[in-house]
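Reminder to self: keep the SMILES exactly as supplied, no canonicalising. Ligand is pyridoxal-5'-phosphate.
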Amino acid sequence: MSDHTWFEPYKIKAVERIPITTPEQRAAALEEAGWNTFLLRSDQVTIDLLTDSGTNAMSDRQWAGLMMGGEAYAGSRNFYHLEETVRRVYGYRYVVPTHQGRGAEHIVSRMLIHKGDTIPGNMYFTTTRQHQELAGGTFADVIVDEAHDPQSRHPFKGNVNLERLEKVIEQAERVPYLSIAGTVNMAGGQPISLANLRAVREIAHAHGALVIFDATRAVENAWFIKEREPGHADRSVAEILLEMCSLTDGCTMSAKKDSLVNIGGWIGLNDPDLAAQARNLCVVYEGLHTYGGLAGRDLEAIAIGIEESVDDDHVRARILQVRELGEMLEAAGVPIVEPIGGHAVFLDAKRIYPHIPQEEFPAQRLAGEIYLDSGTRTMERGIVSAGRDPETGEHRHPALELVRLTIPRRVYTSRHLAGVARSVARVFERRWTTRGLEMVFEPTYLRFFQARFRPLES
Ligand SMILES: *Cc1c(COP(=O)(O)O)cnc(C)c1O
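Structure tokens returned for the bound complex:
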């Protein structure tokens, strides 16, 4: 059970009115959106739990930082502030800003992957794998088996299966790097331990491969290490974060998550030659290497956000608020992924709708039903997100068929989340009369963003 003495370490200075809709309005909106919550307009959404990406509330200091943007094309002072902050907080020597995380993934994949390479990683992430494949590589999942079991209470379901990793490396033609994520999004926001990360690094380096860290939610991972890994309870999140990063050779970062901003990302590297290559590709795809597709004010907001993100009181409130929503759902008997993750609660659509086959998109349907019930927007993380195998053209069938209720940082109150929990419980109660969906439009890349569906009963 979680510690119920936590409270938000801030007070509210500005508020935004949220839309309240009728059931008829929601039914019309969902049909218009092709049963894809990505295609709803935000003014049709009451509680928006689609993502924690770029949806965070900035602090007064960050808003003040926007006014301090030095909008020079080259060498903006805000870039140097960001660089200094990343060096101090994450420990990487070289910093290349990008417009968001996938901009960083694009550059790193292009720079390091040759055609035919294998990139092992602790479960795929949609944009990460897409860029690896577009660069000619193949992703190989080496996460522990427990990650695919929503009921396993393993404390570090983001860990790498070291034997499998060795085997994949031995059988591969070439492994340029391992793609290792903190708090693995697709596994349900599950952390990797420091001990596992250290072992992964030894194996990688023994085989001449780099470790590239997806640091998007590394701060939240550091909290779980403090909470669960023996010997770390008395350390600060900032200390643990720095140690995690020190075990890796570089990182890609979406600042839209941990760093409490609305847009931005960066690449962190320690090798001067790789950094020079990354800066060069940045000029081609993102913008000059001192702004990377961002305004000076954005760079400033990220620098301040990084500082705020590693405050222990902030991280504690963040993680425990998510856990509180999970515990409300558990109390209502709703099957969720255990342990409750860092940034989201994941509903187990396979157990909620055992009568809907995976080809009829149970999680996509569940996300639609939750929207119809209360105007709460969530996201499918199952067969639609997994996409098709590029070799066979068949659907990939992930073991996990989930709906993600993602909590933006510093945005909603516990009362909002209690309302969400009641709504999900109502949808769960009427589960046996709910059927699946049929896909009526499928885009080529990252289909979950734009695919359209029709309910099967009509
Ligand atoms: C969001 C995310 C990305 C991609 O970042 P964007 O800023 O959305 O482009 C990469 N990895 C993980 C784990 C993410 O959650």
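Points to follow up:
The mean pLDDT is 97.
The chain has two domains: 23-52+312-455, 60-309.
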